[in-house]
Here is the input.
Amino acid sequence: MKAICLKNHLKEAFSICEKITGKNLNLPILNNVLISSNDNRTLKFIATNLELGIEIEIPAKIEKKGSMAIPANIVNNFLANFPGEENIILESQNENLLISTANSSSLIKGQSPEDFPVLPKIKENKIYKIDIKDFLIGLKSVWYASSVSNIKPEISSVYVYSGKNTPLTFVATDSFRLAEKKQKITFEDFQPVLLPFKTVAEILRIFEDKDGELKIITDKNQINLETKNIKFISRLVEGVFPDYQQILPKKFITDVVLEKNIFINALKTASIFSGKLNEINFLTERGDQFVLKTSSAEVGEHLNRIPAKITGEEIKMTFNYKYIFDCLSSISSSKIVLRFSGEGKPLLITGIDDTSFQYLVMPMNIL
Here is the structure.
């Protein structure tokens, strides 16, 4: 194989692929990226760890077709320090890669491309299309609420579903909190999927700065996400996501409307004085004052009254301030609503003029 391509295209391809490559001592071929040329205009890069897979195509001038398997981390580190030449020549020599420019050449040892695993293909041909940014917003709005433990894989994931009268919805929970984001698009026959937490992290990394249309293709065990030049493949979690609709509060005893930025700054200050359990006390007072109170044996005490519009009963409850803080960047409204459903019951947080996102968090059993 021999091809000429731009340095920035090559660097991006290897940067993405390196994170996908496996670190399996029993299958060292998974440490490699498979480079191949199927036509005269593009180079294809494939990486996998058997759970995730990626295919990336970049424009190139192909002088000789072929394929090779090259260590991803070595090439990525090499390109990170590569001089400023724009055009790079890639040429296979036996199972090795010769990288050269007008002023330099380097030989990197590879492995036989025959040993590289074939990425699985989806038999179903139903394709769902969505703007990349909308899909990423859905994931970013909820994924932090997933469980980080693999004991229950179904909640160490993001649940994505849609239906005839249901917009595309993203949900995540770790049993102590739950985040839900609805997007303004509906797929009538969309098969619900459970995206592993680690898969979501890679999706956000790979597609973060991409624009345009995203194609979603699924079957029972796998999902493909495709753009013009990237195909991302992941296994899905087997299991049943909790029927979270049953735990969403139907009645509320107190509503507190706050300026989001004021609340964020108040939380940041209060957190300095929080204890080892990250506890923060929420109280309401007459005169529309919402009170944040924290104390720590090591640091001291803090109390802050912030203006609010309060309706309903007085409340006095304790929460993990980190759980509260995590959701606020997912709310687009300048004002937020804290909806309390009673002692020992969950708090619902949403925007005042955008209810496409809602967040449920359980109180702590201390005061």
